[in-house]
Amino acid sequence: TDAEVSTRKKTFTEVQTERSEQAERTVLIKCPPKLNEKKLLQYLSSHGNIKSHFFFENRGIHALIEFSEKTSIASLQDAIGIPGAAEHHVVPFKSRLFTFTLKNPVSETAEETPVHLSPQSHIPVKELTQKLCHADSISSQMYVLLNEYQLTEENIKLRFLACSLVRDFTRAYFPDSTVKPFGSSVNTFGKLGCDVDMFLDFHDTQKHATKMKKGPFEMEYQMKRLPSERLATQKILSVIGDCLDNFGPGCVSVQKILNARCPLVKFSHQPTGFQCDLSVSNSIAIKSSELLYIYGCLDSRVRALVFSVRCWARVHGLTNSVPGTWITNFSLTMMVMFFLQKRSPPIIPTLDQLKELADEKDKHVIGGYDCSFVSDLSKIKPTENTETLDVLLGEFFEYFGNFDFRKNSINLRKGKEVNKPESSPLYIWNPFEQDLNISKNVNQPQLEKFVAMARESAWILQKEDKTQQMTNKEPWGLAALLVPFGKSNPSKMKTRMKGIGSETIKSLLDSLKLNNANSLQKAVGK
Questions:
Q1: pTM of the predicted protein model
Q2: Average pLDDT of the chain to the nearest whole number
């Protein structure tokens, strides 16, 4: 029942379903510059009850309007015209994106009330650092950062709307298809401004299984058959990509990247302002999103620590928005999870423990991999660990600053360090596809830089005397970690980092030699 659901924490699937359904009842309107909010809402209400709305800035003011009933959208669409094709010819695709202009523009002095705009991006680090200095503890600093960076309710609604608008296209070909967000948009670890990863799904499997049992015949659709699932994926994405490119209002810079390990279509969705990546259903990626969702919901310290560590990594160039040999945000997040599993007592359970708690409906085997874990949060016993974030932040840097990366790998299933199965500098087991290393891309110099920065940060936090810091107006605590090191006191930094530079250079040369040797070996071996 709904009442029961509202008292306990919702499961990942319940949240997704609810938000997708919400998005179906939503429209996006580009508003006239001199906007009277009351008049707009009054007019829209003539088409049906408005359940929620907000305004945001994105090259002009836009309004997201969620109606109580889906039928209100049809009613509104009936009243909307097609743009006059004077200098442009239009593609007559009728979406849920509208432009409103005033028939009689009001004079300057008229009743214009400034509307409240919901921010869709986070403040720059410089501004954040100043804010952090006013907090009273590292723990409060970390919550300030979390509040500034995390996705807002409004931003999440916009993300689900972007998916829902793409779905209107895919339904033209595949009437049962759905387009759902995965990854950072839904796993509780997304920051304002992050891309929207969405996937196209064709299966409403539960619904069918029961109906198919009835009657004397085995019945199936005649469908086009292709030699591989990959080829089918590529063909479908190619056509949907062309569709968005040719007919999608506000879909620009459409790129089809069909030869990637996971084929995808990248595009920029101007009305919502999101950069989007569309791929075809990847059940394991959904499971990873759900696992992180569970960890993020279990204890408020989890997200606070992840956001702080990721911001720290970005400032010091340990992570990068372009793919390469850098540590990814996903890997960093997994490192934080592992660290929290290792605390005494543990702050979050291991994946094996979550699997123990799974019941029948939680059993999922995907492509031979067991991806079962409990979905009901109330079955997970809350932690007895009471460590503050002040302690945890310092301990995180301490732990990884001294981690034996040469010998050990990070395994979230067991929550223990296990011997590395192969020689990648950083080895983090993929929680579900047990034979994959999620940080395979990271090279030795990048790992060494991470270790050096972690040690430096642990040292800064240890030597700090907070009272003196706060009177000094120097950045302290987390703020002191978010300024590039070596700026404040280069000479001190040099002595602690002695030997690291030359080591990194040496290892870089070694890894080049190694790579050459490897490619030689491969060439010889062929």
A1: 0.89
A2: 89
